[in-house]
Amino acid sequence: MKPPLILVPCLLCDEVVWAAQRAALASVAEVHGALHGAWDSLGALAEAIVARAPPRFAIAGHSMGGRIALEVARRVPERLTGVALLDTGCEALPRGEPGEREALKRHALLELARREGMRAMAGTWIQSMIHPARIADETLVNIVLDMFGRRTAEELEVQIRALLRRPDATAVLHQLTCPALVLCGREDLPSPPARHAEMAGQLARATLAVIPECGHMSPLERPQAVSEAMAGWLEAVGRAA
After folding, report:
1. Domain count of the fold of the chain
2. Domain span at residue 127?
3. What is the pLDDT of residue 40?
4. For residue 36, pLDDT beyond 90
């Protein structure tokens, strides 16, 4: 029996963001996808995953999905065989001006989506989310625009509310003893390598992977490098089982 692995996508993304990893890891894991429902809290999203999950499983989350994975870990650490956190963070919304600035930026994107449509909003959003050298890569850019185009402004509003209400998950890192992968793009602007190094340092059994020439959308930007890092992590998960 191959070990179960649940893949949790980022804000507004669907199973396409994990397509390369699903294919690459299918021989070593029983891969399941988790899509975000209409819940406006990370905890509720995590509980929906837990309710459908096998008794024991590994979980990998990208960006917002990484925060959801940590909420799963908060609830059922004893059921987890491994955790992979990609291009993400663990802190709550900052107090004061930094938090207000983040909220304003997210709500500006929401207003753009309402005014001009989801693809137009995604065209603005992606400018700081992928490596600058990939902005001219029409294939990559259109994958992201198409994913966002399949969603609605109402769904964006719900997911923004969940992110702005996010709890601090730092304590969860200290409680995890299963093998962990902490991965990001070297040029990830919203979730930089220093943040991931700090998270890795708080985990008992973490491997840190920083992917060169890569921004925030690492599973799409550098699929082979991400798949290889995840395969190595799953080997560690198997050895610990």
Report:
1. 2
2. 96-161
3. 87
4. no
